[in-house]
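Before relying on records like the one below, remember that each one covers exactly one chain. Contacts with other chains, cofactors or solvent are not represented anywhere in the record.
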Amino acid sequence: QFTGIEGKTYLLVARNHDESRTCVADIRLEKAEPVQNVDIYMNNYGNYPDSYSGVVGEFLTLTASLTPVNGDRKDLQWSVDTEGVLSIINQYGPMMDLELIGEGTAILTVTVNGKSTSCTFTVGKAEELKAGDHKSVTLGYQERKVYTFTAPETATYMFWFENGNYAAVDIQDH
């Protein structure tokens, strides 16, 4: 979203960063409307939570979902009520990256043009895995289990799920 100046010309560029796929861009230029409602959408899990329980070290991408979709978001602000639990890493437009940095409870709020909504985060410590450990994990739809692993030496370590049709292990460097 940008604020245009009457009579000034702007260059709009659509780009496809995935060279292996064709991209179709639907470009519209509409005047932003007043925001009637705002929700927090959790991109990682495809839902609109009022609360979330996670572990230290998790990264999440959240979006301020506005009604109407072309709502004026020039004054959009994310805030956290408790230091040391959540950290806003990046904010780009209505989206933001969030890191769970410490144990505790914190409330994340998004406010845009006088409308706001919040999500309560409860953050705990992840279970630690050690080389040679074997964990049997059953995951339902959009469920996750987070572990930490500290390499005792420089080596190649393998993480996998056996018979996990839709499961994946995401390794994040901390």
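The two ends are 33 Å apart (CA to CA).
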